[in-house]
Amino acid sequence: MLNFLLALTLSASAGAPPFLFKTSDAGGLCPHGPCSSVVVVQSDGSYVWTGLQGALMRKGKLPPATLKAIAAALSKTDFKAVKSRPFTELCPTAYDGNERTYSFHTKRGEEVLPSCKYALDKDLPLFKLVDKAVADVFSAGPEGKPTGP
Description:
There is one protein chain. By secondary structure, the chain is an alpha+beta fold. It has 4 helices and 6 strands, in the order H-E-E-E-E-H-H-E-E-H.
């Protein structure tokens, strides 16, 4: 029975579409060690936010307009140019700050952008939109809907 359930779970997850984007925040000091937070957004806009040790913080769905804007910005982003500028400062995790790693699923595969490896231009539309969407996830009400306008 256990093998059947495991096979069923694996086959269901194997057909699942890859995420659209993911942010992973690490660093800072929480009561039980380093802080961590992960937001994974699927291509349909559904998201899961997990916190320290993978604890579920919230599930919900991004508004269609937000999802459409992020998808458009993602398709126009030149990741080679984004990765061309190395991060040369002291990573904020060294002084109780955090590092955000952005992961994007593109037609060419997954693009992973740690903020302490690349000097990310936060004025690029993709980063502005993703950071805003993640902030909305963090501030969403109990139903997973943003509380702001």
